[in-house]
Amino acid sequence: MCSPSTYAISCPEHARLESEFRESRDRMRNLLRLRQLTGFEERALADQVAMTIARLKEHIAAHGCERP
Ligand SMILES: [Zn+2]
Questions:
Q1: Which residues of the chain have pLDDT under 50?
Q2: Model pTM?
């Protein structure tokens, strides 16, 4: 079976940014599950996730390597 993630292999930078996004999103989810975060902490984590998304989008726009 073809995994959807194989698309990203054609662009290593895209794959790297995407895994960075996934990692920061998972980190936020894990922390939210582990304990009650303060509003400040939660916002800082959400900002980090948003930043990785922005970087990925920027790369796609500059590089034109969006998945079909
Ligand atoms: Zn790319």
A1: 1-3, 8
A2: 0.76
Domain that holds residue 58: 11-63
Q: Which residue type is seen at 25?
A: R
Ion ligand 1, residue ranges at CB < 5 A: 11, 13-14, 63, 65
How many independent structural domains does the chain possess?
1
Query: 48 and 22 in contact (C-beta within 8 Å)?
Result: no
3 CA distance to ligand 1 middle (Å): 18
Assigned domain for 3 exists: no
Tokens of 34: 């582990």
- What pLDDT does residue 67 have? 63
